[in-house]
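[agent] plan:
  1. take the single chain provided in the ticket
  2. run structure prediction with default settings
  3. attach structure tokens to the ticket
  4. add a short note for the reviewer (M.T.)
[agent] executing step 1
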Amino acid sequence: MGESSSPISVILVSSGSRGNKLLFRFPFQRGPESPAAQTGKPRSRYAVNSIGDIVEDQDGDSRFSDVILATILATKSEMCGKKFELKIDNVRFVGHPTLLQHASGQISKTDPSPKREVPTMILFNVVFALRATADPSVISCLHNLSRRIAIVLQHEERRCQYLTREAKLILAIQDEVSAMSETTDGPQSPFLHILPKCKLARDLKEAYDSLCTTGVVRLHINRWLEVSFCLPHKIHNVASRFIPPEAIERSLKAIRPYHSLLLLRDEKSLLAELPLDCSPALVRVIRTTSAVKNLQQLAQDADLALLQVFQLAAHLVYWGKAIIIYPLCENNVYMLSPNASVCLYSPLADDFSCQFPGHDLPSILSKFSLPVSLAEFKNPLAPPVQETPLIQMVVWMLQHRLLIQLHTYACLMVPPKEEDVRPKAEEVPFTARLGGRSLSTPNALSFGSPTSSDDLTLTSPSMENSSAELLPGGDSPVNKRMTENMLTSLSEHEREAILSVSAAHNPEDLRVFARLLHYFRGHHHLEEIMYNENMRRSHLLMLFDKFRSVLVVTNHEDPVISVFQSLQK
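[agent] step 2 finished; step 3 output follows
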């Protein structure tokens, strides 16, 4: 994904009174290095053309001359303002042709003044050349970048004719270089002379270099308007392998108030990267966030709406400045990530030793070879000050994807009857017999959903069942009837197995178990049940232990945050 997501080149073409012109392209072929300059050398007919193959594979648009590219990429006026996509052999061109609509009141055609400057450019197109096999999401992202650059250039052209001035400078240099090539030995690339003299050309080169390296583009067109862009294929990666943007999007839509935001950079450097006109709410979130705070606490401390905190958190995650985790607490269980680098002399080990003098990374990672909770590192007699380095080391290892967190899941699994030798084909699955309950993740807080903000409440998804706790007397007829209604979604054998458990003789335990029944299918971890039902961890673990004969308890990653910790198969 890393190589296929990088563009082959960036091209700027225009169409006007002087015809179709290729103003700039990068990378460009220098004269002495071009294949035409080497045609005079004798060459065996049986020699392997390795250099030519590599050039054609890496720079697939190099075989197209400037005249051909200007002809095929400078579209008609009817195609302006729309996505432009053209595939030729193994090269795909993506752009957003834009029409330059000069206001009639700006320049008077009847003005006899010699200072009058009539615009000669009709349209322009900033095009990115990609490999034909590029992912559709990469194509969409680069079209978005082309559209953003086009909008800014159109604005600056209307304001001060910036594009016209730059185009005239480029064309003048091209004419000058063309005249020089007639007197010299060989042709020279005009783009080599354009770069140091043209600000627009340098901006396009900077955009290309950023897309091929970091994936983050920050331009100031005409030193005035900023263009910010992020290519998620380059930013999000685990163990040098890229995370699909679709996985990031699914994860952002599934974050909940009990999740936490972990910044991948320190606060000072992150604030220094923000633009001057950034949202004050974003600055407040960065300064207030902590690895031990959930998003609900963060919203309260930052004095912001929870939905706004979700949006700002998603913004930071998308730009690769933060990841989603579960807040740090002593009950969290961590283990070594399968993608972690355990080399003794790795760069990460050196960074860790500089960050935490007196500790080495391999020794700390060895403590997480098996799942271990943070409570096991806690010394009851030690002061709280000694716990701070441990928390900082865990945060550092989470930032570098060296640890993964395991959560506890419970699944209802009733032992089969002895006479049931084979399962019945017509038996309805357990998940389809939950009496009309939604089997999706509880949508008490759904980020990115098309619903209005009024639907985003902090109430539990099962508040209709929680009302039974308000009734006096756990053994009242009303409570018994509600418990029986909750168990009607189960088969007769499953009801008999649950009622045969000794803890089921306690009406209160049976009622709580029946109320939590829809969580026991292996999709909701312990912390999620605690948040949704407002229950203590000890109470839930005690309930799991009482009904252990019909519950299977497992430990694995949370699918919502595992995308930031390990690779998805």
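[agent] step 4 note for reviewer: Residues 468 and 479 are 7 Å apart (CA to CA).
[agent] ticket updated
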